[in-house]
Amino acid sequence: MKKVVSLAIALILVFSCAAAMAELTFTTGGTSGTYYAFGNVLAQYITNNSDVAVTAVAGNGSAANIDLLDIGDAQLGFVQNDVANYAYNGIRIYDGKPVDSFTAIAALYDETVQLITCNPDIKSVADLKGKNVSIGSQGSGVYFNALDFLAAYDLTLDDITPQYQSFGDSAEALKDGKIDAAFIVAGAPTPAVTDLATTKGCYLVSLDDEHAEKLMGISSAYSKTTIPAGTYEGLTEDVVTVGVKATIIANEDVTEDEAYAIVSTIFGGKDAITEAHAKGAELDLTYASTCGLPYHPGAAKFFAEQGIEVETAK
Q1: Which of 222-229's residues contact partners 24+ apart within 8 Å by CB, and which partners?
Q2: I need a surface site. Which of 46, 137, 254, 273 has the fewest CB within 10 A?
Q3: pLDDT digits (tens, 9 = 90+) for 114-129
């Protein structure tokens, strides 16, 4: 009888521990991008330092990640805040069909729109006319950013030969001379671009002030930013571009306690996270609390404790 009771108690303890350790899937980006590398660092740190177990998996970018959260195949995702706003408000690709099954956890760092080429004669977006240009997967954040850049220079897809490629595939195509330029939207330095700059050499196209302002007029999610000289091998001058915010979102399966644990663990571990990935240095509470989306109640609770009020879903 004692053995039966002991076994029952042991089983209760096992199931109690399992219940306490929530397991969440965090969909990130392609393996050659910053989402994937930084997402894995965050997932590991959260798992090791909280009661929430997070598993980072490769993803196909913002729009695909939103879809995965909407159908419940993932609970957390990295997104560009501009694409997330399109989804939440039912505009652009989501025209008239809003997806509002998610809320924000935190905005973490700037994603810069990087126009990469191996051709020194391409000095402006205007020079893309008639060229083979990778613009990301159709419907991805990169795709919309590329359309905006073209529009700022009075160009459309009809003026280029578009290629719909991932970061890694774009870098390989540039190496092989199969495309003339590629749009890559990610935190700089981006692994795929670092490899290209090291193995073949490449150039980043800079914006002038007029077109940077024009882009910020096209989308309020854009902010003017600079990729410093030295970010990539051979980059000898600062490059002016625009960026959006890399933001973690959560669906309705993430509880208030889990969301609170995630955001508090991330911002409580900035130093350790920075040691594992340089993007950790960009973690900032004020930056994190503004992304144009309503915040998860658990995240809102954390920010309130820091004296910051954020918008929550109505």
Answers
A1: 222/82, 222/148, 223/110, 225/110, 225/112, 227/112, 227/114, 227/188
A2: 137
A3: 999 999 999 999 999 9
Residue 295, C-beta contacts closer than 8 angstroms, at least 6 positions apart: 103, 104, 105, 289, 303, 310, 311, 312
> Please, which pLDDT band fits residue 167 given cuts at 50, 70 and 90?
confident
Q: How many domains does the chain have?
A: 2
Say how far apart CA 233 and CA 230 lie, in whole Å: 6
pTM value surpassing 0.85: no
Q: Are residues 229 and 80 in the same domain?
A: no
Please list, residue by residue across 134-157, b when 16 or more beta carbons sit within 10 angstroms of its beta carbon and e when fewer do: bbbbebbbbbbbbbbbbebbebee
Using the predicted structure, report yes or no on whether residue 270 has a pLDDT greater than 50. yes
What does the pLDDT look like over 107-162, one tens digit per residue?
999 999 999 999 999 999 999 999 999 998 876 789 989 999 999 999 999 999 99
Same structural domain, 120 and 225:
yes
Task: Please list the residues that pair with 160 across neighbouring strands.
Answer: none
| CA–CA dist 209, 21 (Å, integer) | 50
208 phi, psi to nearest 5 deg: -90, 170
What is the per-residue pLDDT for 168? 87
The CA-atom distances, in angstroms, between 178 and each of 59, 66, 194, 234, 245 are 25, 31, 19, 22, 31
Residue 192 belongs to domain spanning: 112-244
Half-sphere exposure of 75 (CA within 13 A, CB side): 17
Tokens 């700037």 locate to 110
